[in-house]
Design brief:
418 residues, alpha/beta, D-Maltodextrin-Binding Protein, domain 2, 10 strands, globular, disordered N terminus
Length: 418
């Protein structure tokens, strides 16, 4: 009897161990649009995870960026999508969650590492559910040519008066174009212009949330004032800036022909490989000395779980690891300029990337004003902000006209603004 019971207990223990092991023995497939990151995932991120989690293997299978949304939706509808889904911020991923394709990750242990601002790109409008782990943000500001600043005896500007004084000095000297930015493609006028400097005027999240709530309007001073600054930029952008494309601006700066580049931190790794001068960065100058500074620290990429995955335990293990300091450090150093959104401690090796991320300790973070909720209707506020920003810089629309046009468009479909 004793021998039989011992044998039965041994078999039961073996079965339980095998079951526990099989629960963590899985191959996870990751869907993504970041095909330029393939080598980083294959050579750095996945090996680090697999070394710490034997039994779980991971495959990174990206699609072309422009095709990702359509390809992913098709796979999800057909039941052939991977276990892990890389998430674009806001409405595209929200639609996937509302369709039942993304699992609710609100109770994931790793979510405690993220602020509400960090989670905003992948949460429901009321914040009751979060369906993707925030992976990275991009920070807006200005990259500058340190050699040019040294030649001209310039210091990094911290106020608007100092900013325009520096631009005047550069223009008067004539050795450099003061700022490299064009208006041909429009989006950069809004992204690296209006939504770069704007948070200092509307006080970041305070103003952005007030606009969503209908408590502020795009005709209010806080929203028109950034256009007034943009209206002064034209004379500093060089001859022919109206026809200058985004790649043109990149080339002008990296070839050393311009002193300042209104920027997003995503430029860091690319610029590092192209310039032969030392670069620095400064956050958008405040209106007056002593003012609180605000930066656009925009949620860019997250990662979630296919609700239909056959390996939920392994997928949750992977997502918790993405929320860790280990992942954040690997990702941030492999892709300098894409910054972890978690509060985990991260050490960055790239000095320019470190300059950008250091602003989180000095300034209040916000996200682009048009990305959450406000661009769901027609006319699209994001697209209208592009053309309004470009028009104001070119002088074909006044700041007040731009604010009124955008307000009228938003109010035509968005109830809180009616």
């Amino acid at each position: 009897m004793m021998r039989l019971s011992t044998k039965g207990a041994f078999l039961a223990t073996t079965l339980l161990a095998a079951t526990a092991a099989s629960a963590q023995e899985a191959t996870l497939i990751i869907e993504s649009w970041r095909n330029d990151d393939l080598a980083i995932w294959q050579n750095e991120i996945i090996p680090a995870f697999e070394a710490a989690h034997p039994g779980i293997s991971v495959k990174f299978t990206p699609s072309a960026p422009a095709e990702y949304n359509a390809v992913l939706n098709s796979k999800l509808d057909a039941g052939s999508a991977g276990d892990i889904v890389t998430c674009r911020p806001f409405d595209a991923s929200l639609a996937l969650f509302e369709a039942g394709h993304l699992a609710d990750l609100s109770d994931l242990d790793g979510m405690s590492s993220f602020s509400d601002v960090a989670k905003s790109g992948w949460s429901t409008d009321d914040g009751s559910a979060t369906y993707c782990v925030p992976m990275a943000s991009v920070i807006h500001g200005f990259i500058y040519n340190k050699d040019a600043f040294e030649e001209l005896g310039l210091s990094v500007p911290t106020t608007e008066a100092e900013f325009f004084a520096a631009l005047d000095t550069i223009k008067e000297d004539g050795s450099y174009i003061p700022m490299a930015m064009g208006t041909n493609d429009q989006w950069e006028a809004a992204t690296m212009g209006y939504n770069n400097i704007g948070p200092n005027y509307w006080k970041g999240e305070e103003g952005r949330n007030a606009l969503i709530a209908g408590e502020q309007k795009l005709t209010d001073e806080a929203w028109v004032a950034p256009y007034r600054q943009l209206a002064k930029w034209g004379p500093y952008l060089g001859d022919g800036f109206e026809a200058q494309t985004y790649p043109d601006s990149q080339n002008i700066f990296t070839l050393g022909r311009a002193a300042i580049y209104p920027a997003g931190s995503w430029e860091v790794s690319g610029f590092n490989n192209l310039v032969d001068f030392e670069m620095g960065a400064f956050y958008p100058p405040v209106q007056n000395a002593g003012d609180t500074c605000y930066i656009s620290d925009h949620t860019d990429i997250g990662i979630g779980m296919n609700a239909a995955t056959e390996h939920p335990e392994a997928a949750m293990t992977f997502l918790n690891w993405v929320a860790s300091s280990e992942f954040s450090t690997i990702f941030a150093n492999a892709l300098p300029g894409f910054f972890p959104l978690s509060n985990a401690e991260v050490t960055l090796e790239d000095p320019l990337a470190q300059e950008f991320i250091s602003w989180r300790g000095e300034c209040e973070s916000s996200i682009r004003s048009t990305y959450q909720i406000l661009s769901r209707g027609t006319p699209n506020l994001e697209n209208d902000t592009w053309n309004a920003s470009a028009a104001v810089i070119k002088g074909t629309e006044t700041p007040e006209e731009a604010g009124q046009r955008l307000q009228d468009g938003l109010a035509s479909w968005y109830a809180p603004q009616q």
